[in-house]
Amino acid sequence: MPTWDEVVAMAKKLPGVEESTSYRTPSLKAGGKVLARLRTEAEGGLALVCAMEEKEALLASGDPAFFTTSHYDGYGYILVDLGQVDEDQLREMIEEAWRLRAPAKLRKELDAR
Q: Among 34, 49, 82, 110, which residue has the fewest nearby CB atoms (within 10 Å)?
C-alpha cells in the first residue's frame, strides 16, 4: 500500500519532477504540468494523468484500485486507490503520466540513461 511519500519518491526518480500544489492539494509536476495530485475529496485517491484508452481499459478491467468520478469524464485522468494498487503497476503508471506531460528534452534525458 503505497503512501503519498512513496508516490513522490517514485516520481522523483524521473527528470524534472517537482512537488507542488494543485487545487490546494499536494501534486507532482513535470515541466510545470501536473501529472498527479493527491485528492482530498470524499472519494480520495490519487488523480493520475493517463491516455484515454488506458483509462477506459483500467476501468473496464474491474480492478478496484482504479475508479473515476463524473468530474473526470472526458479527461485523461484515472483515480487510483493507493490502498489497493500494485506498487509496480503504479510505478509504471507514474512514468507513463510523466511521459505524457514532460517536455521532450526531459524525455530524451531519461531515454539516454
A: 110
Closest CA to 101 of 26, 41, 11, 40: 11
Helix or strand or coil: residue 13?
coil
Q: What is the DSSP pairing of strand 33-38 with strand 25-30?
A: antiparallel
Say which residues have a Cβ less than 8 Å from residue 108's Cβ, sequence separation at least 6: none
SS3 state of residue 11: helix
DSSP string, 27-80: EEEETTEEEEEE--STT--EEEE--HHHHHHHHHTT-TTEE--GGGTTSSEEEE
Three-state DSSP at 9 gives: helix
User: Which triple of cell numbers denotes residue 51?
Assistant: 491516455
Is pTM, for the whole model, over 0.70?
yes
